[in-house]
Amino acid sequence: MTSEREAVARGFLSRAGVADAAREALAGDASTRRYERLHLAGGTSLIFMDQPPSVETQPCPPLATDDERRALGFNAMYRLAAGRVDAFVACAGYLRGRGLSAPRVIASEPPAGFALLEDLGDHLYAGLEAGGAEEALWYDTAIDALTLLHAESPPDLLGADGCAWPLLTYDDLALRTAGDLFLEWFPRLRPQLEIGQGARAEWEAIWAPVRARAAAGASVFCHRDYHAENLIWLADRPGAGRVGMLDFQDAVRAHPAWDLSMLLHDARRDVSPALEAAALGRYLAARPWLDAEAFRADFHALGALNMARILGIFARLIVRDGKPRYAAFMPRLWRYLDRCLADPALAGLDEWLARHVPAEARG
Predict the structure, then answer these.
(1) Which CATH superfamily is domain 62-81+123-362 in?
(2) What string of H, E and C letters represents the secondary structure of the chain?
């Protein structure tokens, strides 16, 4: 943090009444945000979120055309919130209003990029021990939270604690931007790959119908990053509230299979085929009116798109941002992708990858 930004942050903390708190920097993620834990007198703690407002390209205006979004840049094309604090506050309020555990907002100054939040603790799913009945309980509860979240159609505009934020649809342009991250960045990580215009045209032909199904099924509030480093186990809370949620400010209206893929195809944690099958079965049992066969097909197709997206993001983090640690997650992603590709409906994608990204290049 620059000295100028630090001075502005101290002003916010003073206005929030926590100027005397001991400040502990927390590990960062792949975003431009930073977090601190504030240790208060009496042993309690809060979380300070700092999102400098000028380091991201603009988010997507609700009525922007595709051409206008392309002109604005990646965040608008992909419908990301650009780290906006008002997006976080509005989404947190919506989640809490459904009986789910998002942090309470103690104070916020969205124009400055600051928020003071309830501290949900450190029991991230990413650090919980794998295997056994406890792991099944954690994932059952995470599925129950999604079931509760998917029980109603969300509004177009979210509002809480004086903040409002539009809930935009994860539409064709956003989904294409997501999938094309693989084409743009994975060959930069593996320079031996040659993916020419013909291969790119085939890639687009494979994904266009998948994106159409995803956009047509966009009906629920989608956390968008519903994975083990953004979920906290809160054992003392009841029901689905035992799943604490973080990093949901990029939420969109999307197909319900998207967050299921984020949970069950988790780059940061092994989810066994048996656990995946049980969790997906639990979700479908809670929504018996769904066409289970069609939903599973969407889960596999969108799961494959999600894996391609994340592989592209991790390649970008390694190549552009100098963060080699993300290479360690890639073999797990390829294993999840192989699970999705077992669906015969994805034979075309399987064949494309065999020709253009052979096994030795996957890593």
Answers:
(1) Aminoglycoside phosphotransferase (APH), C-terminal lobe (3.90.1200.10)
(2) CCHHHHHHHHHHHHHCCCCCCEEEECCCCCCCCEEEEEECCCCCEEEEEECCCCCCCCCCCCCCCHHHHHHHCHHHHHCCCCCCHHHHHHHHHHHHHCCCECCCEEEEEHHHCEEEEECCCCCEHHHCCCCHHHHHHHHHHHHHHHHHHCCCCCCCEEEECCEEEECCECCHHHHHHHHHHHHHHHHHHCCCCCCCHHHHHHHHHHHHHHHHHHHHCCCEEECCCCCCCCEEECCCCCHHHHEEECCCCCCEEECCHHHHHHHHCCCCCCCCHHHHHHHHHHHHHHCCCCCHHHHHHHHHHHHHHHHHHHHHHHHHHHHCCCCHHHHHHHHHHHHHHHHHHCCHHHHHHHHHHHHHCCHHHHC
